[in-house]
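Q: Hand in one record:
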Amino acid sequence: MLAVGVLVPAGGSATAATGAPPGAAPSLTRYDTIAVQTLDSIVNGDFTAATARFDPTVRKLLPPDALARAWVVYQDQMGRYRSHGGPMDTSSGTFTVVSVPLSMERRAGEFRVTFHGDMSIAGLFFLPAGFPIA
């Protein structure tokens, strides 16, 4: 597993926040849109675009070249990226966490992005499917 950044503050709790009735297709939030755009940038090899919304801490810890290496390591572990599903939002304290299921060549994965209220990215994670938030 590879995880980078800050995901959930200590003592935080998570609650589902999709806002859609059961069986209905959820509408995308602004956080969802940014998370999927970030994932698309990573998948397409545009790591500079993928890091554009990082907060200063994440930008320092995960510049474009480090993000590119992390993506290679993740695909080495999980298999090549095939596709992704729809995002799901979760609230945790002052953060919004967006999880995007990944279809990888060898096993299911998850792309997870943690956002500050100003929509900057506070954490970015490549995980195995089902990894708990808190």
About this structure: Helices lie at 30-43, 47-50, 56-61, 64-78. Strands lie at 2-5, 14-16, 81-84, 88-92, 95-104, 109-115, 121-128. Residues 51 and 64 are 6 Å apart (CA to CA).
